[in-house]
Amino acid sequence: MNQNNPFEIPQQMRELAEKNVEQARATYGQFLDAMMQATSMWTASVPANDMTSGFKAVQDKALRFTKQNADSCFNMATEIAAAKDMQELFAIQSRYAQQMMQTFSLQAQEIGRIMTENTRNMKL
């Protein structure tokens, strides 16, 4: 450990954290793939109409956002695992929080737009 920085995170701990993040990413990827397959099978078994096609559009977008957000989270976790000290860790966390607030806002707007569009199309 560096004598100048008593809060430095040891290299071995960072390597272990990075391995754990990669294992979690792989496991979550398998779970998400299984969930997407199950969702696809379920929507394929439901008779198509305006309501189900609108629901499918929202569902597809939500699943894409879920994958995008999980990827972003795992990228942040990888960066945090490699952080050499607490200052770097907090900077990564702060940057990530700001990015995700913007992302969540845009995603909510997109879901709202799709739902409004589908509702309008159902009334016609």
Give me the count of strands.
Answer: 0
Structural class: mainly alpha
On the 0-100 scale, what is the average pLDDT?
87
Gap between N and C termini, in Å? 68 Å
What does this molecule look like?
Helix 1 packs antiparallel against helix 2 and helix 2 runs antiparallel to helix 3. With 124 residues, the protein is mostly helical. It has one domain. Helix content is 85%, strand content 0%. The termini are far apart. It is built from three helices and no strands.
Q: What are the defining features of this structure?
A:
124 residues, mainly alpha, 3 helices
List the helices and strands and how they pair.
Elements: H1 11-45, H2 50-82, H3 86-123
Helix pairs in contact: 1-2, 2-3
Task: Describe the structure concisely.
It is built from 3 helices and no strands. It is mostly helical. It starts with 10 loop residues before the first helix and ends with a helix.
